[in-house]
Amino acid sequence: MSIIFHDLIGADPARPFSPHCWKVAMALAHKGLPFERNNVCFTKVLEVEGGISKIVPVVRDGTKVVADSFLIADYLEQTYPDRPSLFGGEGGQAMARFIESWSNSTLHTALAGIVMKDIHDVLEPEDQAYFRQSREARMGKKLEQIVEGREAAIAGFSTKLMPLRLTLKAQPWIGGSSPLFADYIVFGALQWARVISSAKLLEEDDPVFDWFERCLDLHDGLGRSVPALS
């Protein structure tokens, strides 16, 4: 029986964009677990699994329901230990926690100033109203003000990736010799921008570009199955 994976979408159900949901999609594929996507828009999230979470991703595996991308990865690791590991041990799980904190605080913060209005523009009208109200209340400014420095944010984004760039000069994956959940955490952030925005964030001679392209090809091209926004 397939795992039910509640995933976030906008007006186009073929373009899931949530960075946290992409982490889970890649984790499920890494484990080789069949899953069925249930498309959810922003205003329907509270209807998922009896309102277990205010956000997605959420997965149902039989009678077990788990919310939060890291908790889902931990659940998959514990429940399916015979399948490829997402962490490579306790140390790898602790390292992934650090990578998630860095990605959320550095990459997501920088990307918000680039893609926030792009997200709004690909939603259905009802979701646009919710998204605008909730994000403007959270950030204390209009969406248009949030992205006022967009071009400068795009130009400066590369510097945010320096720790990753230096790591990838020494090893092929964040996880070392093969990808782990830590890779999917950062991949999710960059895939978010790729799917939702036409902003060019990576140069082709950047080691991060090569790594990201290889991430897109993982698991029979799961990431590449959603085209970049042109």
TrEMBL record:
Please report the stretch or stretches of sequence annotated as the GST C-terminal domain: 89-230
**InterPro entries noted in UniProt:** Glutathione-S-Trfase_C-like, Glutathione-S-Trfase_C_sf, Glutathione_S-Trfase_N, GST_UstS-like_C, Thioredoxin-like_sf
- Residue ranges of every copy of the GST N-terminal domain listed in the record: 8-84
What's the domain of life for this entry?
Answer: Bacteria
**Short name of one Pfam family:** GST_N_3
- Spell out the protein name for this chain: Glutathione S-transferase family protein
Gene source species: Hoeflea algicola
